[in-house]
């Protein structure tokens, strides 16, 4: 009889494990650290995330797997391959930048945000997000999804005495739980039809499902995708996004806009391309329609914000993130029609890396402006160049990257890559919809960019003109976040092949 005891590849699981362990360390340390020294917890969290990201380097040499089936080392629950490492880099790097924003936000909030609970929840969510792309069975995939999501609900509503924050958390929680329940039902159907939860075995067995179970399998495929579509903020599962981003602490809104999407898209890729390639005729058209609807609703929603009262910068970024999610969905839909699905999926990864860097940069500037203007309206950015030239230039660069215009070269190339994926897959109509949406998005991105360089208006009482931060000296964590995102965006624009190469090489 073979032994059920397995050796664990600790190096392979190091990145999410370190994030989880540091979260526990922070929670325990919070009990013993004096109130005046609570900011130390934030720096422990930053160091932990940096260490977790550095542990990706030893994994670059070869694919590593662990928690495999006894007697079949090819079927494993955890695999650290190229796809896993790219998403884990995006998750841990993005979480590190959001942690830098959080250090300043917690200091400015006084006692409205409890630091120990905040960092424990933040690191727990990051650990779940880093685990998900390595998951190779449906059970681990759902557990990772919930570990990433449940702390995020609490982080959105963690601000004491803020009714808007509590309302945003409740809306986020109820809609997410509903989507997860639907996905679990779908997974149970897939398991009933195939008798396995491992993705590679599902891919093999679902092609030969007994005729009586075929309808059950098809229903399971559709329902399984719902939960991941929710995480990507795809229409019609996007309605929670604007209110949640505005109600959440700004670093958490930034976290959801990038890491939350990375979780959803990596899960969607694993379920469709790895587990269900034989059902591409079912999920590919559905994702193509979702992509068209998502980019259109997101961009039109952002365009309409000008007519609303208190034209919020964070709400505009929220609608923008919905539109960007539509572009990210295009290559995944194209993978269902393509002879080389890995190349199509590579386009999504390239776009996600670009989007993550520049969108977090835009949120970093929003965090800076929000220190002087509590409402953080788009109008508060008027004249930012006069008050802080370098910050205005960075914000303009980030917005042009999102729009896909020079000098944001990486944004332009990423959009061209996604567009090419749709054309190569024969989805000409989707490419046309994308082109129209890129033009629509130019209106609000360029409008915001132009506002940065206009003459500043007279400052309201208690505020600084032109969106400049009230303190003359920027906090070091906020400066570091701005510098990192700026350098990364400029480096990628100078050498776009650093991320675009994922469109030419295998990922799995």
UniProtKB/TrEMBL annotation:
The chain crosses the membrane at residues 12-33, 40-60, 85-106, 118-135, 141-158, 170-192, 221-241, 253-276, 282-304, 316-337, 349-369, 390-414, 426-446. Its EC number is 7.1.1.-. It is an enzyme of class 7 (translocase). Residues 135-440 form the NADH:quinone oxidoreductase/Mrp antiporter transmembrane domain. It catalyses: a quinone + NADH + 5 H(+)(in) = a quinol + NAD(+) + 4 H(+)(out). It is a multi-pass membrane protein. It is found in: Cell membrane; Endomembrane system; Membrane. Keywords: Cell membrane, Membrane, NAD, Quinone, Translocase, Transmembrane, Transmembrane helix, Transport. It comes from the Bacteria. Signal peptide: none annotated. Its main location: membrane. PANTHER family: NADH DEHYDROGENASE. Belongs to the complex I subunit 2 family. This is NADH-quinone oxidoreductase subunit N. It comes from Streptomyces prasinosporus.
């Amino acid at each position: 009889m073979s032994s059920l005891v397995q050796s664990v590849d600790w190096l392979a699981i190091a990145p999410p494990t370190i994030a989880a362990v540091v979260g526990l360390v922070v929670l325990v340390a919070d009990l013993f650290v004096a109130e005046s020294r609570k900011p130390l917890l934030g720096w422990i969290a930053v160091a932990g995330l940096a260490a977790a990201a550095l542990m990706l380097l030893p994994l670059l040499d070869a694919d590593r797997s662990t928690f495999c089936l006894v007697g079949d080392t090819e079927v494993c629950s955890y695999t650290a391959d190229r796809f896993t490492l790219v998403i884990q880099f995006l998750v841990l790097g993005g979480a590190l930048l959001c942690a830098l924003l959080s250090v300043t936000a917690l200091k400015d909030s006084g006692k409205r945000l409890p630091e120990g609970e905040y960092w424990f929840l933040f690191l727990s969510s990051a650990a779940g997000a880093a685990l998900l792309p390595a998951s190779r069975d449906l059970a681990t995939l759902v557990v990772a999804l919930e570990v990433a999501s449940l702390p995020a609900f609490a982080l959105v509503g963690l601000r004491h005495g803020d009714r808007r924050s509590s309302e945003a958390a409740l809306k986020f929680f109820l809609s997410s739980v509903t989507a997860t329940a639907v996905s679990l039902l779908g997974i149970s159907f897939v398991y009933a039809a195939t008798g396995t939860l491992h993705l590679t075995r599902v891919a093999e067995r679902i092609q030969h499902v007994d005729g009586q179970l075929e309808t059950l399998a098809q229903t399971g495929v559709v329902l399984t995708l719902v939960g991941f579509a929710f995480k990507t903020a795809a229409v019609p599962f996007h309605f929670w996004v604007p209110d949640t981003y505005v109600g959440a602490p700004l670093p958490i809104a930034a976290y959801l806009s990038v890491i939350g999407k990375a979780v959803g898209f990596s899960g969607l890729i694993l379920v469709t391309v790895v587990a269900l390639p034989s059902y591409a005729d079912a999920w590919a058209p559905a994702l193509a329609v979702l992509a068209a609807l998502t980019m259109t609703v997101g961009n039109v929603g952002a365009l309409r914000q000008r007519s609303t009262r208190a034209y919020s910068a964070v709400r505009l970024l929220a609608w923008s993130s919905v539109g960007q999610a539509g572009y990210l969905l295009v290559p995944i839909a194209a993978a269902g029609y393509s002879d080389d699905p890995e190349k199509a999926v590579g386009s999504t990864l390239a776009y996600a890396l670009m989007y993550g860097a520049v969108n977090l940069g835009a949120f970093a500037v929003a965090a800076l402006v929000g220190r002087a203007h509590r409402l953080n309206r788009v109008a508060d950015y008027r004249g930012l160049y006069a008050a802080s030239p370098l910050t205005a230039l960075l914000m303009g660069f980030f917005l042009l990257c999102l729009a896909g215009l020079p000098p944001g070269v990486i944004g332009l190339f990423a959009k061209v890559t996604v567009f090419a994926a749709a054309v190569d897959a024969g989805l000409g109509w989707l490419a046309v919809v994308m082109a129209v949406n890129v033009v629509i998005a130019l209106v609000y991105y360029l409008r915001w960019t132009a506002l940065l360089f206009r003459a500043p208006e007279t400052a309201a009482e208690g505020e600084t003109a032109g969106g400049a931060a009230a303190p003359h000296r920027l906090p070091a964590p906020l400066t570091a976040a701005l510098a990192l995102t700026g350098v990364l965006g400029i480096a990628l624009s100078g050498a776009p092949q650093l991320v675009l190469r994922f469109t030419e090489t295998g990922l799995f």
